[in-house]
Amino acid sequence: MGEQQMGKSKVLVVGGTGYLGKRIVMASLANGHPTYVLHRREIGVDIEKVQMLLSFKDQGARLLEGSFSDHRSLVDAVSQVDVVVCTISGVHIRSHQILLQLKLVEAIKQAGNIKRFLPSEFGTDPARMGHALEPGRVTFDDKMVVRKAIEEANIPFTYVSANCFAGYFVGGLCQPGHIVPSRESVCLHGDGNVKGIYVDEDDIASYTVKMVDDPRTLNKTVYIRPPENILSQREVVEAWEDLIGKQLAKTSVSEEEFLSKLKGLEYAEQVGLGHYYHVCYEGCLTNFEIGGEGTEEATRLYPEVTYTRVKDYLKRYV
Ligand SMILES: NC(=O)c1ccc[n+]([C@@H]2O[C@H](COP(=O)([O-])OP(=O)(O)OC[C@H]3O[C@@H](n4cnc5c(N)ncnc54)[C@H](OP(=O)(O)O)[C@@H]3O)[C@@H](O)[C@H]2O)c1
C-alpha cells in the first residue's frame, strides 16, 4: 500500500463498501492520499461491510461515522477532508438513492472547504440522455438533478463517465441477466455490430483517483474511453471464442422485439434493460466525439495507466 504523501488531498469516500466504492478506497490509499471512509450508522450488523471497513482501517484509512439522515454528521465528515468521492448505488428500484446526494451537496456547501466533489456517476453521461426511455431514464434524470444542485452551489466538481463496467457487460458477453460467459451460445443485439466501451472497475478507480487533484479535470466531464476497449458485441464474443477455442451458437433479438419485450417486464427490469437498449442498440456511448468544451478523456490525460484490455479481462472466466 502506498505511503501517505504530503501535498496529496485528503479524500473522503462515501459508499466505500460498494462495488465501485471499495475499489476507489483502495486506489486512493495506493496513490498516497490520506483516505477517509464514511461509516454509515445504517450499516448496523452487516458483518461483511463492517469487516471491509475494518480492513480499510488496517490499510491506513480513517473511518468517519455519519449518516445521510444527520446533516451535522455529514458537515463534520466533509470538514475534515479536501475531496469527496461519492459512489452511492445507482437507481435500480424505486428508491431514488442517487438523490440522497442532495444532502451531501448541502453539507459540502455549508462546510465550504471542499476542493472537488465527484458525485456518483460512473456510467453513461446523463447530460447526453435527455431522450432516454421511460422508466430507465430515472437514473439519468436523478443524476442531472444532483449536477444542478452542485453547480448552483458553486461546488468544484468532476463528473466521471465510466461507460460499461466490465464485470457486468464483458462477463455476460453484453447480454442482460448474464455475468458469466457461456461456452455454448450467445444472443446478439440485432446484428451485434454496435460499439460499446468496456472498462475494468479497478481501472475506473485508478483513473478516478488521478482526477481528484488534477486542474485539467476541474469542472469537467471526464469520459473513460480506452481505445482498444471500444468494441461491438460481436468483437467481445470473438475475443471469448478465441480464448476457449470454440465458436458459440448465435441467435439474435431485433430492436423491435427487444423494445416490445421490455414493456411487459417489472419496473426494475425495465430500468436495467432500458440502459442496455441505449448502449447496445442505439450506441449511445460511441455515437459522439469527445472534445467539446468541458470534456476530457481519461486515457489521454493519464497515458501512464495501463488499462486492462477486454481480451485480458475475459481470461479470468476460462
Ligand atoms: N457503468 C456501469 O456499467 C455501472 C454499473 C453499476 C453501477 N454504476 C454506477 O456506479 C455508481 C456506484 O454503483 P455501485 O454498483 O458501485 O453501488 P453499490 O455497490 O450498489 O452501492 C454502493 C453504496 O451505496 C450505499 N447505499 C446504498 N443504498 C443506500 C441508501 N439507501 N442510503 C445510503 N447509502 C446507500 C452503500 O453505502 P454504505 O457503504 O454506506 O452502506 C453502498 O455501499 C452508481 O452511480 C451507479 O449508477 C455504473
From TrEMBL:
Show where the NmrA-like domain sits: 8-314
Instruction: Offer one Pfam family short name for this entry.
Output: NmrA
Domain of life of the organism in this record? Eukaryota
Stated EC number for the protein is 1.23.1.1, 1.23.1.2
Q: Which GO molecular function annotation, any one, does this entry have? A: pinoresinol reductase activity
Keyword Nuclease listed: no
Q: Which UniProt keywords apply?
A: NADP, Oxidoreductase
Q: Which GO terms describe its biological process?
A: (+)-pinoresinol catabolic process; (-)-secoisolariciresinol biosynthetic process
Assembly: Dimer.
Q: Which family does it belong to?
A: Belongs to the NmrA-type oxidoreductase family. Isoflavone reductase subfamily.
Q: What is this protein called?
A: (+)-lariciresinol reductase
